[in-house]
Write a structure and sequence with these properties.
By secondary structure, the protein is α+β, with helices and mostly antiparallel strands. It has 8 helices and 7 strands. It has a 7-stranded mixed β-sheet with strand order 2-3-4-5-6-1-7, sandwiched between helices.
């Protein structure tokens, strides 16, 4: 915490959040039996019901991410043009891929936006249609990302969430929980309190 003192002295507020990671060199064949039964069951179910394929449909990804936010009664914190600018840079560097999970009628159930650097593959965004929540699409797409990291010989980061249900689902993959610290600056105690509610996963 000492390295944060200059920020604290300037009025910034430190916050601790958590993600889950598989380090470099993990082996999916060894990992899979260690995952919680519920996660494995959802992946197996998705394998029976869905097909997974790569896509370039950024608007569809955004729509599914937006639906996920709306299902928790929150607004998506960025607009499609922002995602398009980010994607243009990552696509140029060949550092991203979009995977879709589709049902037998080709309806999109979920999408994942995976990005990577020289160390790690990150599940930067995951979006799902609430009507297809029970298909196991999200767990199956995360498993696709984990296998991608294995093929690239990189670590895998779930880009953890403080939303309780998402946190529990990520934890079911039996990855290592890793804390990380952020800092922010607010103008008054009301904004601080709102930030703490959001970090705890509460709805305002």
């Amino acid at each position: 915490m000492g390295h944060l003192l200059p920020f604290i002295w300037q009025g910034f507020r430190p916050t601790t959040r958590y993600t889950f990671q598989f380090s470099k060199g993990f082996e999916p064949k060894i990992l899979y039996p260690q995952m919680e039964h519920k996660v494995r069951a959802q992946i197996a179910k998705a394998d029976q019901l869905l097909q997974v394929k790569s896509s370039e449909d950024l608007a569809l990804l955004y729509d599914l991410v937006e639906k996920s936010f709306h299902s928790r009664n929150t607004s998506i914190p960025f607009l499609l043009p922002y995602l398009e600018r980010l994607d243009a840079s990552l696509r140029k560097r060949q550092q991203r891929i979009i995977y879709l999970a589709l049902d037998a009628q080709e309806h999109p159930c979920a999408a994942i936006y995976l990005v990577w650097d020289q160390q790690c593959v990150y599940a930067l965004m995951i979006g799902a249609d609430p009507q297809h929540h029970s298909t196991g699409a999200v767990q199956r797409l995360l498993w696709e990302g984990i296998q991608l990291a294995d093929r690239k010989k990189l670590a895998f980061d779930f880009e953890g969430s403080m939303v309780p249900s998402i946190f529990q689902m990520f934890r079911g993959f039996h990855a290592t929980m890793v804390p990380y610290i952020g800092v922010h600056h607010s103008i008054n105690w009301i904004v601080d309190r709102m930030a703490s509610w959001k970090l705890s996963g509460s709805q305002l």
